[in-house]
Amino acid sequence: MIRFEGKDVLTELRELASPRRAALLLVDMQQDFVAADGAFASMGIDVSMYAEIRPRLAGLLAAARRHGVLVVHIQNTALPGGMSDSPAQIRFNLRMHKAARGDGPPLRYTVPGTPGHAFVRDLSPLPDELVVSKYRSSAFWGTNLELLLRSNGIETVIVGGCTTEGCVESTARDAMFCDHYVILAEDCVGSDDKEQHDASMILMRHRFDMATAAAIQDVWAAEPAAG
């Protein structure tokens, strides 16, 4: 910790990731995005990076549960009939994976009631864990996430999930704009485009703290949550 202009600023991982002040955000670990039989994989999009990160993210989730760290599952949602999609959002979807989509309609994914909206089994929420539905890339935009974090005294968000350059980076940026410290679980984020993943990681490395799942778990093991 440093003292700057009359304010205490956390600087060390052991401070930032303390179970007393941190929450784990799992972003969009849903069938349509990451599963081998989900909407994206069915279009021929490469989801192999998700298979690599899932065991590490599942391990981080299990550790959060053991050490009393608040867990929030973020669930991307697209309402049936395009009710949550503005014209600008439709245009956004038209630009996504154009090579795989071809001349077809905008991508449709994570519609409630479909298998693709569900979380993958190894990263599914427990009955008492928070689930926040979102309709845009950022988990903060148009949701109650900030209220939930503030109500539980959360200062730091630890972010993992997908996609690195999309919903993960958008959520990390908005967390900072809401005055939360941000730790990116750097080996627990992934994309279906390695080039975009790498570019996003370069950008975020200059803006946010980064730590491996193992390093974060070491902090939690050294300082169990109170109560």
Q: SSE string, helix = H, strand = E?
A: EEHEHHHEHHEHEHEHEH
Shape: globular
Mean pLDDT: 94
Helical residue percent band: 25-40%
Low-confidence stretches: none
Strand order of the largest sheet: 5-4-3-6-7-8
Intertermini distance:
24 Å
Overall strand count: 8
Count of discrete alpha- or pi-helical segments spanning 4 or more residues: 10
Alpha-carbon Rg, integer: 17 Å
Strand proportion, as a percent range, falls in: 15-25%
Main sheet record: 6 strands, parallel
In quaternary terms, these chains amount to: single chain
What structural category arises from helix and sheet content? alpha/beta
Describe the structure.
The protein has helices at 13-16, 31-34, 39-42, 48-66, 87-95, 98-101, 145-151, 164-177, 194-205, 213-222, and strands at residues 2-4, 7-9, 22-27, 70-76, 130-134, 156-162, 181-190, 209-211. The protein is an alpha/beta fold. The strands form 2 sheets. It has a 6-stranded parallel sheet. Strands 1-2 form a two-stranded antiparallel sheet. Helix 4 packs parallel to helix 10 (213-222). The longest helix has 19 residues, at 48-66. The radius of gyration is 17 Å and the shape is globular. 38% of the residues are buried.
List the helices and strands and how they pair.
Layout: E1 2-4, E2 7-9, H1 13-16, E3 22-27, H2 31-34, H3 39-42, H4 48-66, E4 70-76, H5 87-95, H6 98-101, E5 130-134, H7 145-151, E6 156-162, H8 164-177, E7 181-190, H9 194-205, E8 209-211, H10 213-222
Parallel strand pairs: 3-4, 3-6, 4-5, 6-7, 7-8
Antiparallel strand pairs: 1-2
Helix pairs in contact: 4-10
